[in-house]
Amino acid sequence: MKKIILAALMTICVAASASAQDAKFYIGLFPISYSSMTVDLGMGTDVDGTELKFGIMTPLYIGFKVLDFRVDFEFNGDGGVSLDGINFYYDIVVSDVLLPYVRLGAGYYSEKLEVSSWEQEQTFSKFAIGAGIGYKIVGNLILDAGVEYFIGKWKEKKTGSATQKYDVNGFGLKLGARYQF
Length: 181
Description:
This protein is mostly beta strands. It contains one helix and nine strands. It has one domain (2-180): Beta Barrel (Porin).
């Protein structure tokens, strides 16, 4: 994760120095998000889970745009603010009002896994690909709607000498807004 953050910071610095007049900061919120994921527990056993979230800090994005490229850091406010991931975007120029984009993301997330009579909160690494569209409402305020597909590895805490790893995959839908300075 440290390497990903360092690479993103270097990307931002290089992009800013190369095109300072085209550089813009932005902040975004996705207060409505839906996710569905499947955790493969091995031996043909899967656990399905869905989550619909409403809230001010679910999640918060702070980013930087140069030309048609964006980089942002994703923060989550559930139980305290933590850096959850980094996202890279390519904005496809269609018009001044419609702003479609594609996205690649990576992060380290904490989720609750519930199976029958037990539940555990575990962390997993997640890689995502997504697409969305922005609609410029007024000035620098943009309404965003997007979809993502993600895969990852869920690593359970060590039990004795064994560490269990699970495959995670799923999709998410997000609706929110961003303000570009």
